[in-house]
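pipeline: protein-struct stage 2 | run 1193 | Short-chain dehydrogenase
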Amino acid sequence: MINGSVDMARLKPVRDLDVETLRAVFETVVLAPVSLTRLMLPGMLERGSGALLYGFGSSAKNPEPVLAGGGAAQGSLRNDVLALRAAVAGTGVTAAGITIGALIRGSDAEKLFDASEEARRGFDPERVDPADLAEILWGMATTGEPAEQVVGV
């Protein structure tokens, strides 16, 4: 699985977003996963089998003003994944994404969220177990379906 992870320190509200920050976010969130994909894809195509699975945060689909840079980058990666899926259709290789709009139990993100009243800002997000995500991803890898799975809001 390739994760379009966002460095939380680089998150800025849309009105404060600058080119330098956005460039750095795109480097990590888009260009690194694309580079990994380009390394793995030829072997998969040669074998005629394989699954490229990508993880996104909810702002990849649902823009949030406070997550503008990360959302723009993850949305870009999401579109690339769906285009790649179409491009490799019929080859035995699949590409798919999981958009996670929930806190993963036991994750650093959950710990940070729970430790800070400021981070919570009155939100009580859905929480998901890593084992449940693993089951979803295993199904996507073995069946090639769906193109995109959304967990949480």
